[in-house]
Design a protein that fits this description.
The protein is mostly helical and about 450 residues long. The chain has 19 helices and 2 strands. β1 and β2 form a beta hairpin.
Length: about 450
């Protein structure tokens, strides 16, 4: 593709989205630019503080457990109190807890604060995803989720390189820097991002229907009884288990094969570079494609991309396998986010997003245990074979779950004009992965799972 062609694709990909989305996108980018704890926690504890690798693993697990705990609570807060307040509380709490963590020296104190950091840093995810679904038209949602995912990876790629230099100077500076960047993120949300919760929006519109003004009764139990949605959550957990191996199983396997940490860093850098360079062209490609096929293909690419690792014997071949599963990652993340929105009624998006986030947080806990046990007892080849099997299972699961999935509807989309929030009836959503709550309610009844009520970084 020529430079002019790439520029045209980029303009078409980023055009037409509401201004509020771009402020939310900016806050996401700023937040990820300050990422330090998740990347350098293990090195900080082992090299700077002198703790054992097992203790570092325990702290990492507690950090992940905090994310598991906060997923459901943050989802409820998002629906009950609003997207904006939840994001602000989460971001301020993250900034404070990260700064405090940098000053902790006692093992129990470090572990306890790391748990709090895990809770706080994961709490904004359901709110961000729900707000994107609120303010972006259904036909643009996959594109919006893809761009938000791109911001996450762009920020992470830049921060990883910069934070490495900061860590050589002072780990404490890294903690304080992340706290400062997270506060900047909170300021952006406070100054530029208005509330988008549908319940609040509906109450401000004189001609809104009575049904849109009242609470639709979405509870966590409602989400858990939503059979199709919980199937998607289960498949998301399977996919997350696969992708987590790039950061827990792959470095261990490469180390066992005699490769150095710098070799792993060189290979895994391919993941970030590909996402930063190709996410926008990939977004252009997938936004008009059938989400069913995209999810199936992405699952196969993920599973067999890791499966091919069993045949890797050099850094170049490892990098090649990473290219395969990275393409699957770039396709799966935004399309799956769009599917979660499609299966969620507007008034329950926070709770649905919370349960969906739980699948990724749980995978972050299980994946290290799974990879460690399999590699120690059977060898890395078995781990990569399991990834191929899991990818196949996920592909078959998406094929079954998405049969007869409605592709059009009239979901209310929240739009913000001149600082005021209004509700706008959405027309046909085409073949995109974003439909309306009313259409899904009918689909839920037809699927025999009762009234539907909500959904998804």
């Amino acid at each position: 593709m020529s430079v002019a062609g790439l520029g045209r694709v980029t303009r078409e990909t980023v055009s037409g989205l509401p201004r509020e989305f771009w402020w939310l996108w900016t806050s996401t980018l700023v937040n990820r630019l300050g990422a330090f704890v998740a990347t350098f926690m293990a090195l900080y504890l082992t090299l700077d503080r002198g703790y054992s690798a097992s203790y570092a693993g325990l702290v990492a697990a507690l950090h992940g457990l905090g994310g598991v705990v906060s997923s459901l609570g943050a989802g409820v807060m998002t629906d009950r109190f609003g997207r904006r307040p939840t994001m602000l509380v989460a971001q301020v709490s993250t900034a404070v807890s990260v700064a405090v963590l940098g000053f902790m020296v006692q093992p129990l104190a470090i572990a306890a604060v790391a748990f709090v950091v895990g809770m706080a840093s994961n709490a904004s995810r359901p709110a961000v995803q729900a707000m994107i679904a609120d303010i972006v038209r259904p036909e643009d949602r996959v594109r919006a989720f893809s761009l938000n995912y791109w911001a996450i990876n762009l920020g992470f790629a830049v921060s990883s390189a910069g934070a490495g230099f900061v860590a050589e100077y002072s780990y404490l500076a890294g903690f304080v820097g992340e706290a400062a960047m997270t506060l900047v993120c909170a300021v952006v949300v406070f100054m530029k991002v208005p509330e988008s919760r549908p319940g609040k929006a509906a109450s401000t519109v004189p001609n809104a229907s009575a049904a849109s003004r009242k609470d639709d009764g979405v509870r966590l139990g409602t989400v858990l009884r939503d059979g199709r949605f919980m199937g998607v959550v289960g498949l998301s957990f399977v996919i997350a288990l696969i992708f987590q191996q790039g950061y827990v199983g792959l470095p261990v396997a490469m180390g066992t094969d005699g490769f150095s940490s710098s070799d792993f860093g060189t290979a895994i850098a391919v993941n970030g570079v590909l996402i930063v360079v190709l996410q926008i062209p990939v977004t252009r490609f997938i936004q008009s494609r059938d989400p069913r096929r995209l999810l199936i293909v992405s699952s196969v690419l993920a599973g067999y991309g890791f499966g091919l690792t069993a045949f890797a014997g050099s850094v170049a071949v490892y990098a090649l396998t990473i290219c395969v599963w990275t393409v699957g990652e770039m396709v799966n993340a935004p399309v799956q986010n769009g599917l979660v929105v499609q299966l969620s009624p507007a008034h329950g998006r926070g709770r649905y997003q919370g349960v969906y986030s739980l699948s990724w947080a749980a995978a972050a806990l299980v994946a290290p245990l799974m990879s460690g046990v399999v590699i120690d007892r059977f060898g890395a080849e078995w781990l990569w074979g399991m990834c191929a099997v899991l990818g196949t299972v996920a592909a078959l699961g998406y094929r079954l779950l998405m049969r007869n999935l409605p592709q059009s509807g009239g979901t209310p989309v929240v739009t913000v004009e001149s600082g005021s929030v209004a509700m706008e009836a959405e027309g046909e959503a085409g073949t995109d992965a974003g439909t309306d709550a009313d259409a899904e309610a009918g689909a839920g009844a037809r699927a025999g799972r009762g009234p539907a009520v909500e959904r998804t970084v």
